[in-house]
Amino acid sequence: MLANQIVQKLNATALGVWNQNLMNKDYQYVFATDLMSDALAMINNSCDQTVLLTGLCNAQSLRTAEMLDLELIIYVRGKKLDEEVLKLAMEMGFNVFSTDYSMFEASGILYQEGLHAGD
User: Fold this and answer.
1) Number of structural domains the chain divides into
2) Which of 23, 66, 83, 109 lies in the 20 to 30 Å Cα band around 90?
3) What's the domain range around 53?
């Protein structure tokens, strides 16, 4: 599923889109967690095809995504990044979005669209 389709299905708003090429990228997996240690331990394959869903709106989520080579982060429950963290996301070149859906709802929507668990 293309990133722009994922964003549309989740009614997500852009917090920052710094790599337009990624918006046409195909994603196959989604990993949903607020525990970045789980992401580090469980995301093993196809990191470049995995979307991270999280409610953790701090630099730790960005650093984790960076370590795993993830490029698309969607914050759930309407969470927003503060100015400092948003600046860091921009420097790192991440595309970051926010959806009002809960993590459970967002995961279900993406599962119905054919994305698989990213573990």
Assistant:
1) 1
2) 109
3) 3-117
